[in-house]
Every structure is written in structure tokens, then in C-alpha cells.
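User: Hey, my collaborator sent me this sequence without any context and asked if I could get a structure. I don't really work with proteins. Can you help?
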Amino acid sequence: MENDLKGLDISKKELQQFTNLPVNEELTLVVNQFKKVVNNFFERARGPEAATAYFLGISSVVFSYLILGAVGSLMMPWLPVPSWLVALLLLGIGGAASQYILYFIWKQRNKIVQANITPSLKILLSDVERYNNVIKAIYINDEIEAAGNVDVSIKERHKVLDALSLTRADLIRALKTERILRENKNFIIGNSELFANNLPTLSALQVSEQATEHGRLLNEALQIALDVQLEMKRLQSQS
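Assistant: No problem. I've predicted the 3D structure and written it out in C-alpha cell form, which is a compact way to encode the shape of the chain:
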């Protein structure tokens, strides 16, 4: 990712911080975590740290086998199966139990979101997704350009990024405002900073060439900003 794109997107961690809700939480799969560990091992094994990777990998397997085998022998001495099979059985049971716990936590966090989400927050989350998609589109375009396709470069890139930066600020303000209204339904904290907006500046950046790529991106950023401002006005009218 180009340096000028870093920090422009609104991450899941930031979104959860601004809303004080576990929004966009994804279910963690034990299998995927295991795949990451295995892939990380093979990456290290192909690099200069191959000896260390093999040592740690073999040590982990042997240590796990000895521990699980010993635990299995203590818990199920009556089971007439090899210790390695007992170790695999315990590993499977442990994985299934871990997955169930992760699913339970994910389900509870989803319930928290469903119990507290408002129509305004749904709209803002949709706008954040659209905004992040614009960032991703620019990133992919940069990758295509870096591959040698110079004709796809975004003209007046700085204008597009300025527009996105202003849109990001408005989105964050709207998310903070929605949280204040949601958590303090009887009043709105008199913080004018939350209600100031960058729409006039953003509108001035809009270009007339609707068909150009940078014009399309600017218009997309402006449309998101307009949606955010409309929602901000609706939120203020509720107070």
C-alpha cells in the first residue's frame, strides 16, 4: 500500500472504539489459526531461519505428544489404544472445545451489537464499508499501475486523497455523535467539534469531469459525505 493510503481506511479496531460496540466481529476458526501456524512454519523453513524453524517445530510436536500422551494415560488408563492415538484424540477434543468457546463468545458479542444497534448506526456502518471499498479500489489500481500499466494512474491523486481524508473525518464525527446519542438519550453533550463538518471544503474539490477515474472517486467520496451529513442532521433533530 502506498504511503499516502496508510491510515486512511477505518479499521475494525477503530470502528469498535468509535461505536463502543463489537461491530464487524468475525468468528475465529481454530482450523484457520492452525493453518496460519503451519504456513508460518513453512515460510520460516524456506528462509535463513530454517534450522531454528525445524528445531522449534519438531520440539513442539514431540513436547505436545509427550504431554497429551501422559494426560491421556492418566485420564483414560483403561483405553487400550496407542499413546499417539490418545494424543490425537485429546487434540481433537481440545480443538472442538476451543471452537465452541470461540463461537459462544462471538455469539454473545453479536447479541450485544443487535441489542444496541440503531438505524442510524446501520447507515453509518454501511457508509464506512463504502468508504473503505474506495480505499481498496485505489490500492488495487496502484497495484495494477505498479505492474507496468501506467495508463491506469489516477490523475489529480492528491484531490482524491484530500476528499477521502475529509470524508473520513466526517464519518468519525458521525460515529462519535451516534454513540453519544445512543449512550445518553436524554441529552446531547455540547461539543461543537462533533457537529462541525467539512462538506463545503469537500464540495469545492468535486470535479466536473464525471467520466474520469479521479472524478468518479471524488464523487463517491462526496456522496458518502452527503449521506453522513444527512444522517447527522437526522440525529440532531432527534435530540
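In plain terms: DSSP finds nine helices and no strands in the chain. You can pass these C-alpha cells on to your collaborator as they are.
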